[in-house]
């Protein structure tokens, strides 16, 4: 697939299909069809299972699985990405749509509008403020939450609440009510799925030089392992149908799913209830912070997946175009009763491993979902809930990253704080976990800005060097550090401020420097600047500070101060007299 470059003409940049369609070939078509069919066999059982996670009727999983495939074919810039329902997005929908299809579809429309606006305004940089520890904490907690949510279906328990802690208590309390048929089938499906996954991961690549029988065997095993979800659901459905024919049914079945395609209509902006109507404004207020969390997490998943596979397969993506593609997919999806969708890591991996050449593979996947809705929903009646639960658990368990705790303990322990805050609070409410994790990460970031590393070296003059940029929250800290060290010395000493790491300053910093010059001047001391970058120098010159003096280099400033350049008498200051490079907030 041609690279997505920033210099593409306007039409080709906003409609990426025009980049690869003119050179489309029959060889590409064969690979795209094969990849599309393979992904389709994966998405159909997953869509039914994820609708259960979202707390919606199962057909809504299928309603959410085709529009993204069609839209992304025309607007997406990554050949491998597939859009559709995912475990993470289904969990969020469960929290913010209150198991009401009307809320879920309206949430899809509003999320799409927000994502479109972000793409048009080039606001993708906002995703950078969601740190890796927050993401890992959320996905690990989601893995546990979603998996345990399916234990009730795996064991055939009824009436288990959805709130996590109550769910754990009720499940353990009522473990004696387990239906043997559901438990045996569910655990068997889990074992088969785990075995097929392990088989695929350990399968050696077949080379062209090997005999035909070996290559055919490889293809059969690879296809079986890749389409394992479909095979397990098909096997479980046949078992359930066999019991039905024999007149007994020890399994809990999915039940009837409405046949046919969803009507193409705009989402409803109000909802009828027995005692009246819930207006649009009240529905938006009910969704609350979900209108920020859901679109941001959707964008984060899609862009992260697109970047990962673009890097792996040596092509480029346009992040802002990805936002537009996802926004359009959600807006149009709301017209076919979809709940919010995003990029799926598992199905994208299947797509890439199947050798997809262009986003056209999504057309085949979408068509397969539509065929399932039109003709196969009557067969879905016999799918046991335990089998769908096994599919979900198998899909989300790998999302739990136990190693991240050990890695952060070894690399940077402070990052464990947002990780643990997010991880623990997500068990209470997903939105509290994500928002709290982002806030904690933001506080740690702001602290590092407000308390930058400051190195103070003593000599005939004090040499003060900032270890990072100077922003206005750090100005008071810098002023206190300079005054305390300069005036505490015997005799008091003038100061050289090394500005080599300062790339820009604002008006608050200028005011603070002016006050610092005045305070040192009252004690007969000077403050000189060295290594000023041109933008900073221009601001200071324009401010016309009284007593302002600067030198091109640190050596010239030291000569001004009467010290030997780089002399050995310069010793970084700490409260114990030892060398350090610490935030001044830790130096008293």
Give a description of the structure.
The chain has helices at residues 10-14, 17-20, 26-54, 59-63, 67-75, 87-96, 101-120, 132-149, 151-155, 164-173, 180-201, 212-226, 228-245, 280-287, 290-312, 319-334, 345-353, 361-376, 385-396, 403-411, 416-425, 430-450, 475-488, 507-522, 534-543, 554-560; strands spanning 83-84, 271-273, 276-278, 342-343, 453-458, 462-466, 495-498, 527-530, 549-551, 571-572, 582-583. It has 588 residues and is an alpha/beta fold. The strands form three sheets. Strands 5, 6, 7, 8, 9, 10 and 11 form a seven-stranded mixed beta sheet that branches. Strands 1-4 form a two-stranded antiparallel ribbon. The model is unreliable at 2-7 and 563-588 (pLDDT under 50).
Cα distance, first to last residue?
59 Å
Major beta sheet, specifics? 7 strands, mixed
* Helix/strand structural class: alpha/beta
Helix content: 55-70%
Contiguous runs where pLDDT drops below 50 for at least 5 residues: 2-7, 563-588
Assembly level: single chain
Beta-strand content estimate: 5-15%
What is the molecular shape?
elongated
Rounded Rg: 30 Å
Q: Tally the helices: what do you get?
A: 26
Number of β-strand runs: 11
Number of domains: 3
- Quick check: average pLDDT? 85
Short note summarizing the structure:
This protein has 588 residues and is of the alpha/beta class. It has helices spanning 10-14, 17-20, 26-54, 59-63, 67-75, 87-96, 101-120, 132-149, 151-155, 164-173, 180-201, 212-226, 228-245, 280-287, 290-312, 319-334, 345-353, 361-376, 385-396, 403-411, 416-425, 430-450, 475-488, 507-522, 534-543, 554-560; strands spanning 83-84, 271-273, 276-278, 342-343, 453-458, 462-466, 495-498, 527-530, 549-551, 571-572, 582-583. It has three domains: 23-398, no CATH class; 402-449, no CATH class; 452-586, STAS domain (Transcription Regulator spoIIAA), CATH 3.30.750.24.
């Amino acid at each position: 697939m041609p690279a997505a470059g920033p210099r593409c003409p306007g039409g080709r940049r906003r409609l990426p299909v025009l980049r690869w369609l003119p050179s489309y070939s029959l060889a590409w078509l064969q690979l795209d069809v094969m990849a599309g069919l393979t992904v389709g066999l994966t998405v159909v059982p997953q869509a039914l299972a994820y609708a259960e996670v979202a707390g919606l009727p199962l057909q809504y999983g299928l309603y959410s699985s085709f529009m993204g495939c069609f839209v992304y074919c025309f607007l997406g810039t990554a050949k491998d990405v597939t859009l559709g329902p995912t475990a993470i997005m289904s969990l969020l929908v469960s929290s913010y749509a209150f198991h009401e299809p009307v809320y879920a579809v309206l949430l899809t429309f509003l999320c799409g509008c927000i994502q479109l606006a972000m793409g048009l305004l080039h606001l993708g940089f906002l995703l950078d403020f969601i740190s890796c520890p927050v993401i890992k904490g959320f996905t690990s907690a989601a893995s546990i939450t979603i998996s345990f949510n399916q234990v009730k279906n795996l064991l055939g328990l009824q009436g288990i609440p959805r709130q996590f802690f109550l769910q754990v208590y009720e499940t353990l309390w009522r473990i004696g009510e387990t239906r043997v048929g559901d438990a045996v089938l569910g655990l068997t499906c889990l074992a088969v799925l785990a075995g097929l996954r392990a088989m695929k991961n350990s399968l050696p690549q077949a080379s062209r030089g090997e005999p035909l029988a070996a290559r055919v065997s490889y293809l059969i095993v690879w296809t079986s392992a890749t389409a394992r979800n479909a095979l397990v659901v098909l096997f479980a459905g046949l078992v359930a149908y066999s019991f039905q024919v024999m007149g007994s049914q020890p399994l809990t079945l999915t039940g009837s799913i409405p046949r046919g395609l969803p009507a193409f209509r705009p989402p409803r902006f109000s909802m009828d209830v027995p005692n009246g109507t819930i207006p649009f404004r009240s529905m938006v207020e009910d969704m609350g912070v979900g209108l920020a969390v859901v679109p941001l997490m959707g964008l984060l998943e899609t862009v992260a997946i697109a970047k990962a596979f673009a890097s792996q397969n040596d092509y480029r993506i346009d992040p802002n175009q990805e936002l537009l593609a996802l926004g359009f997919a959600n807006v149009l999806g709301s017209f076919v009763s979809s709940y919010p969708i995003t990029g799926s890591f598992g199905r994208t991996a299947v797509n890439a491993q199947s050798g997809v050449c262009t986003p056209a593979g999504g057309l085949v996947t979408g068509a397969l979902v539509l065929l399932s809705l039109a003709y196969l929903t009557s067969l879905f009646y016999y799918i046991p809930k335990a089998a769908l639960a096994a599919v979900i658990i198998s899909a989300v368990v790998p999302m739990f990253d136990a190693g991240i705790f050990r890695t952060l303990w070894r690399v940077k322990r402070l990052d464990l704080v947002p990780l643990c805050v997010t991880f623990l609070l997500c068990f209470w409410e997903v939105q509290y976990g994500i928002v709290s994790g982002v806030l904690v990460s933001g506080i740690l970031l702001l602290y590092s800005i407000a308390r930058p590393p400051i190195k103070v070296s003593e000599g005939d003059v004090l040499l003060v060097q900032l270890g990072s940029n100077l922003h206005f929250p750090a100005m008071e800290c810098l002023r206190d550090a300079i005054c305390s060290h300069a005036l505490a010395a015997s005799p008091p000493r003038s100061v050289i401020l090394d500005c080599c790491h300062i790339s820009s300053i604002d008006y608050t910093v200028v005011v603070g420097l002016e006050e610092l010059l005045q305070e040192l001047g009252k004690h007969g001391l000077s403050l000189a600047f060295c290594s000023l970058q041109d933008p900073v120098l221009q601001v200071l010159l324009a401010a016309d500070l009284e007593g302002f003096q600067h030198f091109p280099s640190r050596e010239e400033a030291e000569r001004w101060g009467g010290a030997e350049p780089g002399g050995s008498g310069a010793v970084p200051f700490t409260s114990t007299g030892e060398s350090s490079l610490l935030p001044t907030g830790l130096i008293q």
